[in-house]
């Protein structure tokens, strides 16, 4: 069968024990066995470290995709880097984020198996020699790539795929050739330089930092993986007469490479280098093979996130790849020039090489010209990709562009994290939904069933009590489990607008202070997420959230009506606890900035209602469930564009909305930072003078919409009916559906629902 290679610099796997038991159908058996040993399985599960080899959405998507590819019986491999240190652990000290190293391998990793027999060399630096026999890349430095395999079990189908992560090893003669008589000790210590490649995950989400070590990581995973792919292609006979396959004609029919964002974009020039320089394939043939093999998923439209590497860095680190990129770009521009004679500006816009004070390689452009398919991750995002980000490329090859709306695996994000809900669903509609989430539609028949309404509300209340107990045990914070759990958990970023949430919290607080005797719908506002260590504004936002909590949570006038909690060290294992307990899910990015979002889907399937803008997959969630069953507010993409043309003026909103002005004045006057009154001047200055994400423009609509949330929450039966309708309409957002679409429309393979026979039975 055709093999699928999913290349990603991030795999945000979380814990593995419970997921493995669920997918193998062993959870009850293990539970019973452990219980008979006088142990508690849940206590055991809490000991496992998260495999935090990702930042957020992109890395977690890769993990969900691995689960779905195995469950759908695809011959798929995940390839990435075995970072010694994953995403940092977050501590909050005096209200500020403090990072500590995530030494997740300290006690070993029982799920991985080192494969030294498949170790491969990766080359860096050196120079290019053009000889009559062909091009040679010589005088390189070698780093070895050691593979570690982690099994990826499908759900009860006896399929186990592999995630192969590469670790960097110095060769034994590393730096000893040069030293010869010199300092042997120094040379051995320098092995660290090579092995640093797989040391640590870069902790940036949606932000490009052009560091040489990061470029090394990107080439490292690509070079090792492509050697592996080609070794496997050559050794598989596929009904081929040759003892060793030398003809690459059929390569694209046997191999599909999916690039998770531009991070593995070097796959394109590296495959060209192997085909042309090593395997002596004709250039044009090699280019056809490369394009038919690779496909590219775009994950963001934020300009600061796009990878643009300095040519000077390539020249030094990967000189042959630079030559290949120049040649590919020339071919591409020749084609564009022939189709649009004299349109010099179009050539400039479409070039892979950006001219300027510092010449740069635009990796997204490289991916578009080197792939047969480019996809966005939600319908609205794919439209923006076609109509703005890659508009010129879309005009050239419209057939290349597709949409593949993201999804989440219902195994981890329903069965594993919310067994109570999964049970009452299975009671009503059977277990088929676990591998075919569209079957949740059958719950629409029970929307007025009083028993089911009561059961759904009961499960949510139990989840809330359990999470409240966890918060009290871990962080010594007491919360009111009868309050509305209002949750925003995601990476801290200006575009995600945690500041809008803050302004609502302050507004609620002011209303309570103003009218202490009035009855309020009690809320616990929970905000969680990590800030990139170098992202000053994001760190200030965390300090603001903790400072607001400090004031509100200690004000006797407020009591149980309002609490603001910052959830420390948000990660996969914490998401599995908080999401099933949430009543309200906040998805409030400025329209046109969140490519898809996947947390939004997890909350929907777990029985929270969504307050959100028409952005990312929220649009399709509203379409599936009916807009009246979500709390949709604020500007749409068209409104944002119109406001950009007119010019966004924060001052107008500040002066026109008294409650907004009061909140902003409190932040700037030091009401929330009495020890340091000027603490938040950077935030206020940004909001008033250069807010790219137009927080104030959506404030009024947001506050009004939150009022409607309160109204509905006071009618528990109606609230729960909306919850059931949301769950029933969440089936589209399974990663099984997403992967089925990738398989059929991009990779050209058919997923199979049938389990293969278990290992104790003969096949066929």
TrEMBL record:
One annotated GO molecular function: glycogen phosphorylase activity
Top-rank taxon: Eukaryota
EC category: transferase
Catalytic activity: [(1->4)-alpha-D-glucosyl](n) + phosphate = [(1->4)-alpha-D-glucosyl](n-1) + alpha-D-glucose 1-phosphate
CDD domains: GT35_Glycogen_Phosphorylase
Keyword rRNA processing: no
BP GO terms, sorted: glycogen catabolic process
EC numbers: 2.4.1.1
One protein family per Pfam: Phosphorylase
Cofactor requirement: pyridoxal 5'-phosphate
Family affiliation: Belongs to the glycogen phosphorylase family.
Role: Glycogen phosphorylase that regulates glycogen mobilization. Phosphorylase is an important allosteric enzyme in carbohydrate metabolism. Enzymes from different sources differ in their regulatory mechanisms and in their natural substrates. However, all known phosphorylases share catalytic and structural properties. Allosteric enzyme that catalyzes the rate-limiting step in glycogen catabolism, the phosphorolytic cleavage of glycogen to produce glucose-1-phosphate, and plays a central role in maintaining cellular and organismal glucose homeostasis.
Protein name: Alpha-1,4 glucan phosphorylase
Organism: Menura novaehollandiae (superb lyrebird)
Lineage: Eukaryota, Metazoa, Chordata, Craniata, Vertebrata
